[in-house]
Design goal:
The chain is an alpha+beta fold. The chain has a single domain, classed as Winged helix-like DNA-binding domain superfamily/Winged helix DNA-binding domain (Arc Repressor Mutant, subunit A). It has six helices and three strands. A hairpin with a 2-residue loop joins β2 and β3. It starts with a helix and ends with a helix.
Length: 109
C-alpha cells in the first residue's frame, strides 16, 4: 500500500461517525449488515449514514451488495488487513526489538 492510499483511508476513519459505522460492520462479520439495520443499530439519520457510507465505499474500506431491495454493507477485510500491515511493516526497523518483538509490544498494551 502506498502512503497516499493509507492516508486517505485513515482520514476516512478519523471521523467518529464513520469509525462507529466501520467498527459495527467489522463486528458483523463477512455476512455484513443491511443498511436499514445499520441505521437502526447506530440511531443515525438515513441521509447521514448514506453520506458516511459513500466515503467508506469510496476509499475501499466497505463494499456493498444488493439482495433484492436490500443493500448490504460489508467490511473489505483484505483492504483492512492491508492498512494494518502497512502500519506495522516497519515497526522496530530502527529499534532494538528482537524477532517477535512486535508481538510483545501488542501484548503489553
Amino acid at each position: 500500500m502506498k502512503l497516499d492510499d493509507a492516508a486517505v483511508r485513515l482520514e476516512a476513519l478519523g471521523n467518529p461517525t464513520r469509525l462507529r459505522i466501520y467498527r459495527t460492520l467489522v463486528r458483523a462479520g463477512e455476512e455484513g449488515m443491511a443498511v436499514g439495520k445499520l441505521q437502526e443499530r447506530l440511531d443515525i439519520a438515513a441521509s447521514t449514514l448514506s453520506h458516511h457510507l459513500k466515503t467508506l465505499v469510496g476509499v475501499g474500506l466497505v463494499t456493498q451488495t444488493r439482495e433484492g431491495t436490500t443493500l448490504i454493507c460489508h467490511t473489505n477485510y483484505p483492504m483492512m488487513r492491508g492498512l494494518i500491515e502497512y502500519m506495522l511493516e516497519e515497526c522496530c526497523v530502527e529499534g532494538t526489538c528482537a524477532p517477535g518483538g512486535l508481538a510483545k509490544l501488542f501484548k503489553a498494551a
